[in-house]
Amino acid sequence: MRILSKEDARELLSGRSPDAFILQLSSQLQLVEGTYSAPLKSGVQIALSKLFAYLVLRDSPVCLYVTGWGVATEHLDLFDGYRRSLGEKRPLIEAPVHLFDRTDEDAFISILCMVFFFSWDASVFDLAGRLLLNIP
């Protein structure tokens, strides 16, 4: 896993910002109709994160871009401590993009679990532009 600033991510996305890339994907990809609520129980959130990891970490590198945080349900010390254990010292606001490949399944699951636990907003997308999951 690599943790990137928005500017670092722009280089991977052919000069487009992560926000512009997501906007383009959302206009190009066929959207699944309906709204789905995230499960409230942590065990189910973990299972859902594992399922997403299985489904998305197959072919192309995948980004998990945290787009919204600062809610009452979060505990940033847990998130920051996890990232520090990986050598990342920048705060989330400076480096909100996480890049994963097939060998990063556990890290993907961990970050996605914290997104669910803390009720954060995030987008998961592949660099090939075939997948977009928005978590509002």
Walkthrough of the structure:
The structure is a single chain. With 136 residues, this protein is of the alpha+beta class. It has one domain. The chain contains five helices and five strands; from the N terminus they run E-H-H-H-E-H-E-H-E-E. A five-stranded antiparallel sheet has the order 1-3-2-4-5, sandwiched between helices. Strand 4 and strand 5 form a beta hairpin. The longest helix has 15 residues. The chain is globular, with a radius of gyration of 14 Å.
Question: Can you describe this structure in just a few lines?
Answer:
With 136 residues, the protein is of the alpha+beta class. The chain is 42% helix and 18% strand. The chain has one domain.
- Helix-strand string: EHHHEHEHEE
Contiguous helical run count: 5
Please give the share of residues in helix: 40-55%
Q: Radius of gyration from the CA trace? A: 14 Å
Specify the structural class: alpha+beta
Global mean pLDDT:
93
Spatial gap, N to C terminus: 23 Å
Major sheet: 5 strands, antiparallel
Low-confidence spans: none
Order of neighbouring strands in the sheet with most strands: 1-3-2-4-5
Global morphology: globular
What is the percentage of strand-forming residues?
A: 15-25%
Would you report the number of β strands? 5
The tally of domains stands at 1
